[in-house]
Design brief:
It is a single chain. By secondary structure, this protein is mainly beta. The chain contains one helix and 33 strands. The strands form eight sheets. Strands 2, 4, 5, 8, 11 and 13 form a six-stranded antiparallel sheet that branches. It has a six-stranded mixed sheet with strand order 19-18-22-16-14-25, with no helix packed on it. A hairpin with a 4-residue loop joins β18 and β19. It is rod-shaped, with a radius of gyration of 39 Å. The N and C termini lie far apart (127 Å). 33% of the residues are buried. The N terminus is likely disordered.
Length: 413
Amino acid sequence: MKRVVICLIGIALLMGAGQALAGLHTAPYTYAFTSWAGTVDDWTNGGTGQYTTGHNAPNCVKFDGTGDYIISPTIDNPDQMKVWLKGNSTSTPGTFKIYARQGGGSWVEIRTCTWGTGMDIPNGSYGPQVIIDLGPEFEGQNDVDFQFVYELKNAGNVALDDFEVTAVAAMTESDARLAAGGAGAQPTISSLVDTQAEEQTVLTFNVQDDGSGTANLNTMITGLTVVPGTGNTVGTWTQVIAGADLTDGTNIWAGTVGSSAITFSGTPMATLLDGDAAATWSLKVWLKPLPYWADNEILAFKVGPTNFVTDPLGSNFVLTDPEQESGDLNNKIDVVATKLSIVTQPTANGCVNQSFYLYAGFTDENGGVDEDWPPEDITLSLNTGTGTLSSVSGLTKASTNGESGWTDLKYDV
């Protein structure tokens, strides 16, 4: 008889190991077996029956023969496994074991249950609750399932109810730091910085995961928003900034320029290794052809700890670290005149001898007015045609803030 029992045990374990599980859950996970009847809710049933009275609610699993088993669905991130067991007429203890496996691998025994009052399987009553710390082999892993096997029945049945798997608590820490670093911004940014190849550094700062946290997590940065700093006088950045890049000296991230923000994102865009040295990040921009009012305006930029977006599975920034700014006297737009241009054209259509306006000034290659150009006479004259160009106030006027304007021009053929 003993040899037959051993063969049955072997069959039960092999059947359990070969089952293809249909479901996947994430801890915390509970199952009360209130509707247990065969295979339900991704559980696999190997010969068990049902009791109509459970631990706290109707119904539970009934193990009534050698080789009976059940297998849980696969569960991610388990910490502890908990279950309630009860013996019915189990005057002679048998063998009841609990197994676990990960990723469909080999079953590993995690408990040989004890029998009797105060043990895992009391006769005639539930309790105490069986609680198993899973240890590093299964704790926090993915695709972990559990098998309960009545390997040897000597007398009576075993009831099982209220299965529970707790979750490994997510580790968090805040040891990512933001600090001053790098050469910083320059006092001015020329209007001739108008291509990506000519982009200029307008803000620098240091970032670091200093390793002071106890969880030893890296900082995974998935986003950063640069906002206007103290002294910014350009209300709409999209009017003057053509593009922006962010670099750590090795990697370059392209930004999206908005009216009052420059945003960067990635999955992640950068990872700061736990305890690594500080890295200097530099924000660089290049300009558009500038509107007439842009000369001497200030582009001020700012980054604070709350402007970073980090992966919740990694470290966070220390929120009390000071914001880093480009400075309220830096990044002044400097329009550098290279030519004399018509700044404001007259209307396309007009009548003979009817007044019209025109503005001319000293501009850069893109038509931006250099407001710092010293006063200088600008003279209008007729380039082509046979008529007469005139102005009551005179065709020669000294420039002011880099330009001269006429509102009383007339053309007579």
